[in-house]
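Hi support team,

I submitted a single chain yesterday and got back a structure, but I'm not sure I'm reading the token output correctly. Could someone confirm the output below corresponds to the sequence I sent? I've pasted both exactly as they appear in my results page.

Thanks,
R.
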Amino acid sequence: MSNWKYMLLAGAVAIVPAHAFAAPKKEAPLAEVVAPAAEESEQSEATNKAAMADAKAKMQKEIDEAIKLIEKIFGVDKLPAVPPAQLALARQTTTALVPPGSLAKMVDNMYGKFFKGLMGELGGMSDLMLSIKTGVESEKIAALDDKSKAAIADLFDPHRAQREEQVTNVIKPLITEALGDMEGPMRNGMAYAYGRKFSAQQLTEMNAFFATPTGKAYADEWMALQADPEVMLAMVKAVPPLINKFMDRGPEIEGKLKDLPKERQLSDLSDAELAKLAKLMKVDVKVLKEQRDQWNTPVEETDTIEAAADGAFADDSATAAADAAASAADAAGDWDPAYDRENWSEADRTRVEELEASASEASSAAYDAEQAAIANARKKPTSRK
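Hi R., thanks for writing in. Yes, this is the structure output for that exact sequence:
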């Protein structure tokens, strides 16, 4: 599959349900796939509801943290106020620029024209998918005509066309509804941005333009056109030249950056500078001196520390894998009560926590050792090969 198709596939994840990416084990309607089984116990339902509520709470917490970070980075609280009259003009402007259905139209432009082809890729028609299913090299499959490929895909999934239509009918209305909910907040945020960026006279002139037939036609289409296939294709085609420029000028850029002074490390600071740093950080200077001394540990000792760290990491590999699986399942919304430590035995929980503590200590020691090695290397004359 080409890089372009990979990009489309990545974008489609936002609107295509997870089951569309895998060959179904049985021919079942979508409602049967997503609905709980009839014989599911009340206890299981309660567990699922609790897990869903927990997942929503975690998501909201992460969103809240992201909002705080963005507000801090951009200093939102320090932005100048927008006069009410100017804000009213800006709201008129953004209402014209984001009329109801704008985001849905943009998504239709992005996916609508590719949806059938994309579903063909996901549904088993692509060379890659047929190669995975049959074990035949994709080069040989690529040599087949489309009619043969369709017949092969139909052998695996005779109801492929109906399934694609079902996915479209079920998912797209939900996406349209969700995007409609986003338009109000988007218009409001844009109103403040436009109110600060443009004067009252400029906003008035924009509104007069958007009131004309040509202006209204532009306002209705400008957002959707950002996702037009021609625009997207042009952007993708523009990527290689951009990357080539950086690759061709790599030595030049490296040479210019090499002349910059090296960043100082804790080991480079004098006692007086350490005292000043401790005062600024409101910590005991002893803490900083101990850390500096660790950085100055001889290289032979750092090798021993790194070896110990590697051993600890190896012992903890199973735990790390389990944690990774738990995180992946949680992110996908596929929560498994077995990952809840409250459900573990005391012995299992103690063993995992002890290994995690060892791994944390080893990681810290390995980092300190690495920094000490770097600091020692900088004190020695080096020759460029």
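A quick pointer for reading it: The radius of gyration is 29 Å. Let us know if anything else looks off.

Best,
Support desk
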